[in-house]
Design goal:
It is built from ten helices and no strands. α3 packs antiparallel against α6.
């Protein structure tokens, strides 16, 4: 039992450190150091979150970090781990499987998140779960983990899905959570930072942008996916104004072509 609590403490510390470092650096850069320089990049220039919003987001994100740690540790318990594809020896699989498994985990997570997210938007669930996250109508980096307790458990559930469907080393899981949080923070950044050429590339048709998820927070509907536009386009839930909205910000940043 003592060992279990050490694992919980270590995982919780890792989650909190990951959140405060990644979200904190982006907040410091875009909301403090370079706020004036990135004025044209602000997705909602006429609306600003305040200190009360930031404090609420930090408190709930910290609670979510603890819950995410508990879910992750649960996957490694003696009752669960023997039935999963978790492996501890790096030599059990080729080293190239580590980055590949992280990439595949992001694809699985996007599917998991899309359907979980749409479920939480059901009228019978929204007010008791997801509404807390949507209090951030103009999100910031601190919004990334600002979840209701029930939603935090649902968010963490993707780890259990992953370890039951593919071989995952603890390193793969750690890298996955770091990459996922980095993309999550970008989605809630409040600023569009994609380069000019992104708009004309094939990646624009596949990948989400900060504008994509910001529109979801502003409108409360559509754009349910996390990393890719695929599920929203297949299911017809992409917000119809997304491309127009992105182009407005694109023109503001780079001028007319």
């Amino acid at each position: 039992m003592e060992t279990f609590f050490r694992y919980v403490a270590a995982e919780t510390a890792f989650n909190l450190l990951r959140y405060f470092v990644i979200a904190g650096i982006m907040f410091y850069l875009f909301y403090k150091v370079f706020a004036g320089r990135f004025t044209k990049n602000k997705i909602q220039p006429k609306r600003f979150a305040d200190k009360k919003d930031f404090l609420r987001e930090i408190v709930h994100s910290s609670m979510s970090s603890v819950i995410l740690a508990l879910v992750a540790i649960f996957a490694f318990t003696p009752w669960i781990k023997p039935h999963t594809f978790i492996y501890m020896d790096l030599n059990d699989y080729p080293i190239w499987w580590i980055p590949l498994s992280v990439g595949l985990a992001l694809v699985v997570h996007d599917t998991y998140f899309y359907w979980m997210h749409r479920t939480l938007h059901h009228p019978k669930l929204f007010n008791i779960t997801h509404l807390l996250h949507h209090k951030s109508t103009n999100p910031s980096p601190w919004t990334a983990y600002s979840f209701h307790v029930l939603e935090a458990f649902a968010e963490g559930g993707v780890v259990l899905v992953l370890v039951f469907i593919m071989p995952m080393h603890p390193l793969s899981l750690a890298l996955f959570t770091i990459v996922a949080l980095m993309i999550n923070v970008y989605g809630h950044l409040g600023y569009e930072i994609m380069p000019k050429g992104f708009r004309k590339s094939f990646l624009f048709e596949i990948l989400n942008s900060s504008t994509y998820h910001n529109l979801h927070h502003a409108k409360f509907k559509g754009n349910y996916s996390l990393y890719f536009r695929v599920w929203d386009r297949v299911m017809g839930t992409e917000h119809p104004d997304y491309v127009k909205h992105y182009d407005i910000i694109q023109e503001r940043r780079f001028g007319k072509e």
